[in-house]
Write a structure and sequence with these properties.
The complex is a heterodimer. Chain A is mainly β. Chain A has no helices and 11 strands. Chain B is mainly β. Helices cover 0% and strands 57% of the residues of chain B. Chain B has strands spanning 4-7, 10-14, 19-25, 31-37, 43-50, 55-58, 61-66, 71-76, 85-92, 99-100, 104-109. In chain B, strand 7 and strand 8 (71-76) form a beta hairpin. Chain B is globular, with a radius of gyration of 13 Å. The N and C termini of chain B lie far apart (36 Å). Classes of the chains: A mainly beta, B mainly beta. Chain A binds chain B through residues 4, 33, 35, 40-45, 48, 56, 60, 91, 93, 100-112, 114, and chain B through 1-2, 4, 30-31, 33, 35, 40-45, 48, 50, 88, 90, 92-103.
Chain lengths: 118, 110
């Protein structure tokens, strides 16, 4: 399977714990995105990488959230001191595009990591 | 924040009927895209229409774009049970990330 891979599929944690999710994009894709989705809503943009550089981060994103893409391949999203409001599906997507960001970006999504904070 | 708003929120039809979903957006856009999401899964890209295009077809899908009204529609013809899913419009401006609407949930019964 050469699609976008996310691990784990499900994560249950207690409030206050730290969690880390991993995303492996399609191998030749240079751009990687993290979105968050709650029930009945569309995906909400969190952050975006071009190769290893984090180029945009949502202003709505708490300082408890941090993302890395150290070698321009896989990415991790860490949430520190989780809160019940962090419960959501965390989606990763990738794309291959060398034009200006936002120009005809067609995203390929993984199946997501469902986070439940108790 | 959500750029697009889909209408209706939910749609139930019989197999063989056509399904039409509408999307309105707030600011000028570079392009508009439609994605499908099956329950509990990631999104799948369906079609992209550029801001200078008015209509585009892909198989049983037809998308229109009216930039003067800041709206788009997705038509699925001859629907099948397998089309049951949530459908999202998404758009962006140059230099910004793709922003999604809240989606339309389509149920196709056989």
């Amino acid at each position: 399977d050469t699609g976008v891979s996310q691990n784990p599929r499900h994560k249950i944690t207690k409030r206050g714990q730290n969690v880390t999710f991993r995303c492996d994009p399609i191998s030749e894709h240079n751009r990687l995105y993290w979105y968050r989705q709650t029930l009945g809503q569309g995906p909400e943009f969190l952050t975006y990488f071009q190769n290893e550089a984090q180029l945009e981060k949502s202003r709505l994103l708490s300082d408890r959230f941090s993302a890395e893409r150290p070698k321009g391949s896989f990415s991790t999203l860490e949430i520190q001191r989780t809160e019940q409001g962090d419960s959501a599906m965390y989606l990763c997507a990738s794309s291959k595009n060398f034009g200006e960001f936002g120009t005809n970006e067609k995203l390929f999504f993984g199946s997501g990591t469902q986070l439940s904070v108790l | 924040s959500q750029q697009g708003e889909e209408d209706p929120q939910a749609l139930s039809i019989q197999e063989g009927e056509n399904a039409t979903m509408n999307c309105s957006y707030k600011t000028s856009i570079n392009n508009l895209q439609w994605y499908r999401q099956n329950s509990g899964r990631g999104l799948v890209h369906l079609i992209l229409i550029r801001s200078n295009e008015r209509e585009k077809h892909s198989g049983r899908l037809r998308v229109t774009l009216d930039t003067s009204k800041k709206s788009s529609s997705l038509l699925i013809t001859a629907s099948r049970a397998a089309d049951t899913a949530s459908y999202f419009c998404a758009s962006n401006q140059a230099g910004t990330a793709l922003i999604f609407g809240k989606g339309t949930t389509l149920s196709v019964s056989s």
